[in-house]
Amino acid sequence: MEPGDLRLSTATATAAPASRRGRRRGGLLPALGLLPFLLYVAVFLLLPVGVLAVEAFRAVDPVTFEESWSTANIGTVTGGAYARSYVGSLQLSAITAVLGAVLGLALAFAVVGSRRGRRLRRLVLTASGVLANFGGIPLAFAFIATIGNAGVVTALLTDTLGLGGFSLYSMAGLVVVYLYFLIPLMVLTIIPAVEALRPQWREASDVLGAGGWQYWRYVGGPVLAPPVLGATMLLFASSFAAYATARALVGSSLPLVTLQIADSLSSNVIVGAENLGKALALGMVVLVGLVMVFYTWVQRRTSRWLS
Amino acid sequence: MTAAPEPGTVTAEMPGRAPARAAAPADLREQPPVGVRLEGLTRRYGGVLALDGFDLDIAGGEFLALLGPSGCGKTTALRAIAGFEVPDAGRVWFDRRDVTAVPPSRRDVGMVFQAYSLFPNMTVAENVAYGLRVRRRDKAERAGRAAELLELVGLADRGQRYPHQLSGGQQQRVALARALAVAPQVLLLDEPLSALDAQVRLQLRDEIRRIQLELGITTVFVTHDQAEALSVADRVGVMRAGRLEQVASPDDLYERPATAFVAGFVGTMNRIPAVLGDGDVEFLGVRREVLGAAPAAGPAFALVRPESLEVEADPRGAGRVVTRTFSGAVTRLTVALPDGVEVQADVPSAGSQGLTPGTAVTVTPAERPALVEPAEVTP
Amino acid sequence: MSATTTGLSTAAVAGAAGVEPETPARPARRGRGWWRWAVAAVLGLYFLVPLAASVWFTVRSRDGVSADVYAGIPTAEGFAENFGRSLALGALTVLLSLLLMVPTVVLVELRLPRLRPLVELLTLVPLLLPPIALVVGVRSVLAWAPEYFFGTPLAEAFFALQEPALPWILVLVYVVLALPFVYRALDAGVRGAQLRTLTEAARVLGASWPRVMLTVVLPVLRTSVLNAAFLTLALVLGEFTVANILGFETFPTWIVRISGSQPRLSVAVSVLSLLLTWALLLLISALDRRRREEDPA
User: Fold this and answer.
1) Distance in angstroms (rounded) separating the CA atoms of residues A283 and A260
2) Of A271, B48, B211, C31, whose CB neighbour count within 10 A is largest?
3) Which of B85, B132, B134, B171 to mutate to test the interface with A (most CBs of A within 10 A)?
4) Quick check: is C156 in a domain?
5) CA-based angle A286:A287:A291, to the nearest 5?
6) pLDDT-derived band of residue A93, with 50, 70 and 90 as boundaries?
7) How far is A10 from B339, CA to CA, in rounded Å?
8) Beta strands B309-313 and B360-365: pairing type?
9) Which CATH architecture does the domain made up of B268-377 adopt?
10) Half-sphere exposure (Cβ direction) of A180: Cα atoms closer than 13 Å
């Protein structure tokens, strides 16, 4: 808006009804107030991601050490071991997101359904808050102590029952550990939606002759579908991005893209590995973006009634 | 609030909409009406008795309103008819069928809730057709029935909308259409108007009555608003603490309340200090016959409706007008009498302009038998 | 089964005892509560066993049970330094987040409701964007200092941000990571408080904008400010990815570093930090509830 417009907008504002004034006058000055936030986001969020997108296309010549534009990094990360790490990460995220969503939803229903258990509800919600956000490293060590090589439960199982064969330091092990923070994340995200299911809907459905299955098929399910989908999407992104837990548990022995990135950044051996890391990271951003696009498409189909 | 007809009734729901409505589908009209009988229903929540040996007979095709303050058990009674409440003791009969243990989905009742009961993920038409859908009727039949019922409630053009795109009043019309679509034996209305604006409330109230009369369906209507109950119901049951105080036609309830609680709850009632004599009662300086059985002689209260008091300007009168509230044909006066008694009187607006606050007046009860409450039994 | 697991499973069941679903208020459906019990019992076991096993792992020894590991935490090499650093980073992050976001949220609610979708979208990005991708980008930007700006004040500033004793760059990135939580906590508070009416009332009574912010907005928002602050602090105390990739030592990276040589210490610190965070969150939620009961506005 030009400075000259300011007078114009103030003039209209005085003529406008009182209730609208606050909004109409909100031209230049309040918008300036948003500047610190926008600048901060631009510098510390958008700029780094943008740099990633540019520098992933820079390559260093191993002989002359000269940098030039190239798609070599992209070619490298979309093939071989790197491609396998993407596939590994995607598989792990998909499995843990679906399992976490199903189990978290069940837990949310169990907690919401217990009307007498206000205290239980608060206990579960705060614990979920801690595990979902704080998780990472402490969880990894708790599991190492439990079912790691020298873990308490491992010893119990092998000594008393002669069981063995499950390794914490495998993909299956990661699934078990990831669920420990993904289920709480699901509970936190989905509880508001579960609580928003009105008892009148169930009663209206009952009175109209529907059974429980029909209620969930026609009403409860479709109403819950959009939030459940959104939460699953969040779980997927969270699992896909997880680094701390995997790092503490398996070092870099599993094909996961976050571990590959860290590896390439700390490598002093390969020339230009830094840019390879950027390409790998850019790949993650692109994949998350694609999943978001898919999610938006599905969401639009399942929630036509919301708009 | 009084039970007198509201002044200035609004007829058209919204500008440009014809008030004429389609007739109800034939199969709904030809349903034989079913009577409902509640026998000694008792329901206890923890230490609270919501229903305390509750008996009620509702004739087939009757429109019965259950009226009472919140917590009196009226909703529990309604939910017992629907099947959501399983009584601790007592039985529920639909004609000769004992439905006490029948789950809601098999009772064949229609129910309209207070608000927000429409399924948000379905269009209006899909909502109305839900009962048929779960009965596995084919698509054409569902669409046809939904159209008929939306026509009946005056929302024929809203079938493809979603509930959140409708006003509160329209949502309740849809809920009514949905409840009726399965041709239920009994229609249950759980405070269906209480979440609506005053004006919409009046229109929908009259419309519910119109449709009920047309279909001849047995209907139970729960409300805490006595004007609502008196204006639509064939009979009104006044409830208190899990029991029925009185069941009667609106006129009887208003003119001949069985208890002081009913008298106070239904309409406005003045309680004027009086002295019971032998077969008559003296108050405000005049003697009147006692309505019904006269209690023993002694101090008492005369119960008098505002419209049964006449007010005249009189410079030597003992009363003083305190407030004057104009409401169309009648004007409500609050008059302060000696000894700190205040009464409400409704006088014809025409010719009462002189009765401004401060005017000295005399108040005289109309020439008719008066209801009396012995002074000891003040509630 | 040994005594240990029996004890654990009873603990799990005791924890789930409150799940009893039947209530006097809604009695119609009977006999459908069993699955809640099953879910609560199985998941309760899943969540309690690792915690209990970790505690057992840290206290058992050849001569029985001892809490030596826990007693040794405060004096452990590097603990005080790194925990202190993480706390300082957390406090700075909380401060900067609030300074940035409280005015933004209030402004959006009161004056710029049309920009709400934009702010919402921007604050959602860090939730979905993998932190490791963000930090790789940050590393690239930091690398500009020696490459392009060497010798300029800008480069000096870049280097100052990376002081290992107190790496400000971590604070700056953590503010971004905390954005989704801080924004949502504050936004919920603003919406629940009918801020528009309150500030309009204050303005009509003649208060200036700064005064309104200080005397009306902040007191009304104190619960959500507290929530936001706590979530941010917990996030910083547990954050590993960014610190690790940028090569700084903080509390979590310290735990990983010592895990090889002192496994019991690393587990003890982990469990303790989890339980302490939980206790703190419970306390805040209890305080919040009490305040709401006293003042049902």
Assistant:
1) 12
2) B211
3) B134
4) yes
5) 115
6) very high
7) 62
8) antiparallel
9) Beta Barrel (2.40)
10) 25
Domains along the sequence of chain A with CATH: 84-251 (1.10.3720.10)
Question: Nearest to residue B274, comparing CAs of B348, B369, B169?
Answer: B369
In this structure, are residues C134 and C173 in contact, taking their beta carbons and an 8 Å threshold?
yes
Which residue among B45, B46, B86 places its CB closest to the CB of C28? B86
Does residue A160 register a pLDDT over 80? no
* Residue C44 included in any domain: no
Q: How many domains does chain C have?
A: 1
Give C281's contacts (C-beta < 8 A, 6+ positions apart). A126, A129, A130, C230, C234
Which of A54-68, A262-276, C260-274 has the highest average model confidence (pLDDT)? C260-274
Query: Smallest Cβ distance to C100: which of A40, A115, A116?
Result: A40
Q: Do C27 and B86 touch (CB under 8 A)?
A: yes
Mean pLDDT of chain A: 80
In the predicted structure, residue C238 carries a pLDDT above the cut 50: yes
Q: Does B128 touch chain A (CB under 8 A)?
A: no
Give the residue with greater pLDDT, C147 vs C77: C77
Q: Is C249 helix (H, G, I), strand (E, B) or coil?
A: coil
> Which two three-digit tokens encode residue C76?
């452990």
Can you give the CATH number for the domain in which C226 is found? Answer: 1.10.3720.10
Task: Describe the crossing of helices C79-110 and C168-192 by its angle, rounded to 10 degrees.
Answer: 40
Q: CB distance from C3 to chain B under 8 Å? A: no
Contact between A209 and B135 using a beta-carbon 8 Å cutoff: yes
- State how far the Cα of C144 lies from the Cα of C135, in Å rounded to an integer: 14
Find, in chain B, the residue whose alpha carbon is nearest to that of A226: B121
Separation of alpha carbons B14 and B16, rounded Å = 6
* Coil, helix or strand at residue C168: helix
**pLDDT at residue C3 in the model:** 31
- Give the one of B45, B86, B104 whose C-beta lies nearest to C24's C-beta: B45
Give the list of residues 6+ apart from residue C203 with CB closer than 8 angstroms, or none: C209, C212
Total Cβ atoms within 10 A of residue C175: 27
Q: Are B61 and B13 in contact (CB under 8 A)?
A: no
Task: Judge whether C45 lies within some domain.
Answer: no
* Closest CB to B119 among A207, A209, A219: A219
**Domain B26-262 carries which CATH code?**
3.40.50.300
- pLDDT value of residue A6: 30
Looking at residue C63, what is its pLDDT?
A: 74
Domain definitions of chain B by residue range = 26-262, 268-377
Is 90 exceeded by the pLDDT of residue B63?
A: yes
| Type of residue found at C215 | T
For the segment C197-237, what is each residue's pLDDT rounded down to a tens digit? 888 888 888 878 778 878 888 888 888 888 888 888 888 98
> Residue A71, Cα to own-chain centre: how many angstroms?
29
B26-50 confidence digits (pLDDT tens): 677 666 788 999 998 999 887 888 8
Q: What global pTM score does this model have?
A: 0.81
Under 8 Å CB-to-CB from B21, ≥6 apart: which residues? B151, B152, B153, B154, B207, B210
DSSP B290: B
* B334 φ/ψ sector (left φ>0, alpha ψ -120 to 50, else beta): beta
Helix (H) or strand (E) holding B322: strand B319-327
* ipTM for this model: 0.81
The region that residue B328 occupies, defined by phi over 0 for left and psi between -120 and 50 for alpha, beta otherwise, is: left
Q: Which of A99-113, A164-178, B269-283, B325-339 has the lowest mean pLDDT?
A: A164-178
Domain range for C284: 79-294
| Of C267, C120, C251, C136, nearest in space to C182 by CA | C120
C28 and chain B: CB distance < 8 Å anywhere? yes
The CA distance from A45 to the nearest CA of chain C, in Å, is: 7
